[in-house]
Amino acid sequence: MKIISKLFVIVLSLTLAACGSNKKFSLKGSIEGQNELNILIYSPNEAFSGYDTIKVTKGKFSYEQELTDSAIITLLFPKNIQTQIIAYPGDRLTYKVSASAMAKASVEGSTENELLTKYRLSVAELAGTSLTAKAKNFIKEHPQTWAAIAVFEQHILANSGREKNDLKETFELLHKSQPNNPYLTRLAQQLYAETQVGVGQKVPPISLQTLSGDTIKLGGDKKRATAILCWATWMEASLQQSALAQKLRKELQGKVDIVVVSLDYSPIEFKQRLGHDTLSLHIICDGLVWQSPAVMQLGVRTIPGNILIDSEGIITARDVPHVDLEQKIRDLAN
Description:
- There is one protein chain.
- By secondary structure, the chain is α+β, with helices and mostly antiparallel strands.
- The protein has helices spanning 2-21, 111-123, 128-141, 146-157, 164-177, 182-196, 239-251, 267-274, 293-298, 322-332; strands at residues 24-32, 37-42, 51-56, 60-66, 71-77, 81-87, 92-98, 106-108, 206-209, 215-218, 225-231, 256-262, 282-284, 305-309, 315-318.
- The strands form four sheets. Strands 13-12-11-14-15 form a five-stranded mixed β-sheet. A four-stranded mixed β-sheet has the order 4-1-7-8. Strands 3-2-5-6 form a four-stranded antiparallel β-sheet.
- α3 (128-141) runs antiparallel to α4 and α7 (239-251) packs parallel to α10 (322-332).
- The longest helix is centred in the first third of the chain and has 20 residues, at 2-21.
- The chain is globular, with a radius of gyration of 22 Å.
- The termini are far apart.
- 31% of the residues are buried.
């Protein structure tokens, strides 16, 4: 009887361990022509919390992560190069790319990733309306997939030059095809917020609490121009906005308010990374990332991003490319 009990315990333990392991996805990769590198990895739909760093050694890497649900996984390389991966609990995926052609990454191990790889290779040399047309067609053919959501985010939503109809039509198709997808529900809320705070509109009255405990008010009776810079310290591409915020705060003090909306996962870590630089800025960082009330109210959908508001409370621009951002903010002071 004792032997049977012990066997039962062993079998139960192995079963539970197997169930636990089924929640993990693994990713093995190789980057031809790249010896050492750090890759940032995170999930826009927060299937796992926070972000992590993958270390590439001798062109190879291996990574495991427990997932709470199916996910879009973003691999963020230096120079803001990104690759989207679709991951389900239990997936074992393989990533391959040449350092000289990062846009042509291949991900194998699941139908959706192979589908996304085929699309990625077909658009690697495209831009502008040709890229948008290809993205719309992919979404139309595969609206029930996470791959279509990844394409929507990367080549429709993040495209500042897109037509409003492109956004509306493709998103409605996705939402209709996946009505119970909570990530699409969250995107719907963000897109609705953006319609309330779009270019040419008067910003509604919004109160935001800063890291220092002060309250910043937008809209209403406020008669000073405001530049809202949205970024996170864990994203390399955000560092330029950090330096710009400090520079313009000093030069335009009294003329333009510089407000930082941070999508960092921890206010404490945010302070540690920026140190004394946080003391002189209006910073909103509650650790809620995409679920932050500030992010939702302002319709923030990409980082680094920005919202420029003139002295009459009218939004003059959103998500201005960094190369043009400094001049656009200076224009607010005139």
